[in-house]
Design a protein that fits this description.
By secondary structure, the chain is α+β, with helices and mostly antiparallel strands. The protein has helices at residues 16-40, 50-66, 75-101, 107-127, 131-156, 162-188, 198-235, 245-262, 276-283, 285-302, 329-342, 369-386, and strands at residues 266-273, 308-313, 316-322, 345-347, 350-352, 356-363, 390-392. The longest helix has 38 residues, at 198-235. The radius of gyration is 32 Å and the shape is elongated. The N and C termini lie far apart (101 Å).
Length: 394
């Protein structure tokens, strides 16, 4: 006996409301994620734009939700206000991105696009009821918002946030192309009713995809900046804005490893500001801080691109010179000493000069970090006996 197999066919039918609800829910979820991030970094005042990104997602979510009540709420709410909220969401995301990256932006452009779209939507609903023209108006407004977002993301490409910017840029370029194609199709074949078409279905689904990319991209952008700021705190001296001891130690270890691989040499200069305590005692710590900043800036201006200068501690600096002895470290140390001695350290009515003592040590592939630093410190000790001198470790 053979059993007959019965097959059951399941059909899924989606209408405008179902898809709108689906996309609105996505916007609400993404708004929650951005809201949580905004709460976590609420004390970091320099992180502007996160609140605007939250409002952008909420505007889009509410705008889509209003379309679910087409037969229960006034037509102005479900037709006009819904579309304006969606455009406002795009505009707010442009503002959020601009505020976060620090690039200039035009509020008047955003307000202008929304005002023009509102005027045409009202006209083509209450004076000349034309669904096609309302859809064209909304599409053109969306194209304008997407274009200014693309321009701003293109600028962000050149910053340290380019990875997340590229993620959003690609998605908005595709979105912009689709909106232009959609507008052309609406002009050539205006819709006669509000029934769900293939183009409308694609619009809703693309809106979901774009909302995902812009929210994830923005969250990633905030995370990237947090990481960059943490890296800066960990590796950059707060006062002089040059690498701190930790970063300098890491670079020294890498340079030693490179020298051992290539069987090459390099040199270090350990520099100490002479009688720096007297500067603080006589003119105050603010003047002492200014001396450190100006001295660090002078060192940076006199070094090659591949050289390294870091604040080693207090009034000491460590210069690392890859490729020595070709750069002649002793001659460079003499030039640094002379330039510091000639520099006028003026502060209000105070004008004075300082000097530095420099210990020079050369390293090769058999050296260790401790040996290099010990040699440089020994040479600096000899230079400090006379002060304003350069001593080379033997």
């Amino acid at each position: 006996m053979y059993r007959q197999r019965s097959s059951v066919e399941i059909h899924f039918t989606f209408d405008v409301r179902t898809i709108a609800l689906f996309v609105a829910a996505a916007f609400f979820v993404q708004a929650t994620a951005i809201g949580a991030q905004a709460f976590l970094i609420r004390e970091l005042k320099q992180y502007r734009g996160v609140g605007a990104a939250l409002m952008a997602n909420l505007c889009a979510a509410v705008g889509l939700m209003l379309r679910l009540f087409a037969d229960r709420l006034p037509d102005f709410v479900t037709t006009i206000l819904s579309n304006i909220l969606l455009l406002t969401g795009s505009g707010l995301f442009y503002v959020a991105l601009s505020q976060f990256t620090g690039f200039p932006y035009s509020k008047s452009f955003v307000i202008g696009v929304i005002a023009v779209a509102l005027s045409f939507l009202v006209y083509f609903r209450y004076w000349d009821d034309d669904l096609g023209m309302r859809m064209i108006t909304f599409s053109l407004g969306s194209v304008a918002m997407v274009l200014i977002l693309i321009v701003q993301l293109w600028r962000t490409q050149k910053t340290s946030l380019r990875f997340s910017a590229n993620l959003m840029l690609v998605s908005f370029i595709f979105h912009g192309i689709f909106l232009i194609v959609r507008t052309i199709s609406l002009v050539l074949d205006p819709p006669r009713d509000s029934s769900l078409t293939l183009v409308q279905s694609a619009t809703y689904l693309l809106s979901f995809a774009i909302s995902f990319f812009w929210s994830i991209g923005f969250i990633l952008m905030v995370s990237q900046r947090l990481r960059n700021d943490l890296m800066e705190v960990a590796t950059v001296d707060v006062l002089t804005r040059i690498p701190n001891r930790r970063a300098t130690q890491v670079f020294l270890e890498k340079e030693l490893s490179r020298a051992q691989r290539n069987q090459s040499e390099f040199s270090v200069l350990l520099i100490d500001i002479d009688d720096f305590k007297q500067v603080n005692d006589r003119w105050g710590h603010s003047v002492g801080d200014d001396v450190l900043v100006k001295t660090a800036s002078l060192f940076q201006s006199m070094l090659r691109k591949q050289d390294w200068v870091g604040r080693w501690g207090g009034e000491e600096f460590l210069v690392i010179l890859p490729g020595s002895p070709y750069c002649d470290p002793e001659s460079l140390a003499e030039r640094l000493r002379c330039e510091v001695a000639d520099l006028d350290y003026s502060q209000a009515s105070t004008s004075f000069h300082i000097t530095v003592s420099i210990g020079v040590a050369c390293a090769n592939q058999t050296s260790t970090v401790d040996e290099i630093l010990k040699k440089a410190d020994g040479a600096l000790y000899k230079a400090n006996i006379t002060k304003n001198a350069v001593s080379v470790a033997k």
